[in-house]
């Protein structure tokens, strides 16, 4: 049971959780409380009308075996509760042969649990007398019991059948049979029938005792509260492990349970449905309660005497006690093993010495704290920045304890090893630390920690090494002993040094009693200082010589020596005695030099003398490297590695492969110092690669993988990342790629099929879904890929191809050797054509929010020249977690026929492929941006949009001088956030009905925000781009009006009807001489109309069959039909596109009056009902200022959209000419559309446009005949 799932209320731990019950709530078996069970809200069967068991008098003489209640009373009360809760009908009277009828009550949780408790309590009564119970059962279930004592097993089985007729099962819970899981008390020895049951039973018997000394066979709330008051019980919430029946647990000491001798507790779960405690298990197996006061001793970091206190934390080298000031900076953690024996530790006690309070002498930090008696703790103690953290085992016994720790100072000599000894047992009180030289036997060349005896230090002939005794101790003190210390520094001679501890005595039969002698090992090259702590433990009783560990110095052959250690941890018996004079008597049964270590040697540090004579000292890390082809994933057997700037030569990778040794370690590989290294990696036929690595000891063995690229001149993209997520995908998207003739390249697979994509409407791109498996395996290069795109072009000698050669989906998973080999993903690009090739990274899968980018990944770009030269030009990295899509950048390919010399930058590569029609330059453009918002999914279908701009008056193309901006950029990254010149992307036709020009946009609505042509009125437009409905190109025309001061009306519509006509009807017009004008055509002839007698108007038949421009003229006043389009929906033979032109009317120097503007669907005669206006119409109205002195300007004032046309004719609006000038107030009212004003300069009149929007169902010119 993990403690984080459970809350507890225990005296030793503080109140973490307490289940609050209203009033004095007792359990169902609350008979000793002498009160009814109060009702409890929620899902419970506790009721105030339940009849409690019959109590004996409260004195021992009248009680049976000291109990206040017997099994018969419990069983009878439980049976009555089941009958009551399950609503069984009233008894049948004295006629037991007449069966009772049930009320048909639905079996619910309360009924099921009540019956289950009754069946359990009656089962406990089997073999005992209880006539009253049998009679009660027979009254409700006739002939179930035989009425004779004792209660038998057959009678219980018969009652179980009656139970099943009432409530046999509830949601899979067997109410009548499953009774063992809801025991009221633990199994006892007396109930055991087999040896297995006896061994599993925790108690010789079970009872709990109240404050009066009476014993009870079950646990109740009142008993629990009394145990809590004595610090012998606690309770808590089950939290996450609660179920429908149990939500609370309780543990307490029960003296009759055998495990009490190890301070264990008996634990129960409380059923809030039944109102009773159920036996659960012993605390040693549940790990619910950490410590109880009854099992604890007091501990302190000080030995407090009558008038003075002695701090028990000492400097391991000098033996000096910590000062009172330093004691207050000490922090500590005591942990002990979690129950269950799996080796896990959990924190038992932790804190700061300064918060422990003072002892009786006023020493702050010397206050006592609680530890469990006879317990092994793992202690971590930090004595401040001057000392290394001490870690080791600490043992408590039955008495209060002083925690003695010797901490090692951080000021260690360079390239040194330190060893300390301390102990706590008073007998023997003198232990000695020994160090044997390599190959030494007893009595020769041995150094021990007694300065008056033998050789206190070894120093090399040139002082290149030193072994020195720093501290000795005779074991003075009452609760603390030691420390003894030595260190080994410098260029130690090769060999094995043995570290031993001996009980100093002349009697070789003496023993290392007490078991707390502890040896600690430190290294100057370890950031934590402390390497190992070994405690002798109980085996100290087996001898007086303890071989703790070996320190081994070995030479690697390149001038580097490695200092390692190995644990021996064995008692040497027999062992020699040592006299006061230092004489050694006797021999070891097994010499220390012959004692093997347990496990593997572990490196402490390495050293070597550099070429300048200085001593290098540091950590070596075992590393391995595997060199693969980034294209075929094959191991390159010829690969070599050179450590740049290091005098270690060149190594064959194949001869230094990391191989598991079968014991959890590895053989082979390279040993290199911690820190940064630069590797130069080569292999035949592949480009040389340099790799920067950082080695840390915690990485050991450090494994690296290098992925080399063939030296074949091809351009490649390589994606590499760490262990998470398991799968990233490298995707290359060609954008705007053009063949030599300027047409957009169509991409196919190897079978000339449309490539697969995530969405069938999407454009082609390189990804893992192009084939079942993406690989490029072959014995010789070039290999043949399975996932590739090929451009369908006319030149077979220069065919563009892009392939995903390697797709890795299992990052972070170890192989059969236990090594994590995270392969790359590689794309090869051959014979690219002009355009962009966007490099995108996705955290698979693309349609789910998770996983995201979790570890650093890098995208390396290698540009080749198409022949043999390849170089890495950039590596783009993402070091921040989060995000699903990442745009690394794009390769732009440009035709540099006129400027090949300019393709020389650090990110460019001039191609040297003879089959290319023109010289091409590959250039890498880094972006490095997470894609969010509209760009969050970068593979959306695209549409090739071709725009062509015309003069709406003269019907002339003006695209070469036009530019525009949009609300979102085209897919070409080079045009992002830039104004686009149509001259560079103009629409043109090519051979075989293909087209050039245009730009790709992702599907969706596109707003052309500002279309600009010098000398024309700027405008905006919107286009709906549908990626699934467009095949090759979406062609759109833009018709622009000269910004020359003239007033114009432009009528535009779709494919149907083929011909929409514009009419302008002068009405109530007067010349400036207040005379009616005479209207003629531009040749001076009377204008033609549909019917004789009609007043003049502007229309397409003004001059019979003559084509526009057609003008209606009266003096200087002129109304001109500039264009009349009659072929909407038809394909233009020259362009191969449908060009739906507008109809345009220009107004100049108008007389005062009204000029009505109509549109109609052409028919002859005009009164015909068909055709009608069918598709959407848009009429743009431009008001000019009439200036003819070079200052003329026009502006768009209204756009009338006829979305759902009805009828034949439509009155768009009226242009009103007033002889008065436009006042400022009138102009300000233009915001109240559809009215607009424009003052004229010549003549000085005011033009006012008023929108109408009236549908005309009859011929509107008839009234004017």
Overview of this protein structure:
It is extended and about 145 Å long. A hairpin with a 6-residue loop joins strand 64 (1004-1012) and strand 65 (1019-1025). It has a 7-stranded antiparallel β-sheet with strand order 24-23-28-31-32-35-36, with no helix packed on it. Helix 1 (71-85) runs antiparallel to helix 2, helix 1 (71-85) packs parallel to helix 3 (131-140) and helix 2 (109-123) runs antiparallel to helix 4. It is mainly β and 1265 residues long. The longest helix has 15 residues, at 71-85. 7% of the residues lie in helices and 36% in strands. Residues 1-5, 11-46, 56-68, 92-104, 447-453 and 1227-1233 have low confidence and may be disordered.
Cα-atom radius of gyration: 49 Å
Low-confidence stretches: 1-5, 11-46, 56-68, 92-104, 447-453, 1227-1233
Structural class: mainly beta
Number of strands: 78
Biggest sheet: strand arrangement: 24-23-28-31-32-35-36
Q: What is the overall silhouette? A: extended
Main sheet attributes: strand count, strand direction, barrel closure: 7 strands, antiparallel
Query: How much β-strand is present in the residues?
Result: 35-45%
Gap between N and C termini: 103 Å
Average pLDDT number: 81
Total helical segments? 9
Helix proportion of residues, in percent? under 10%
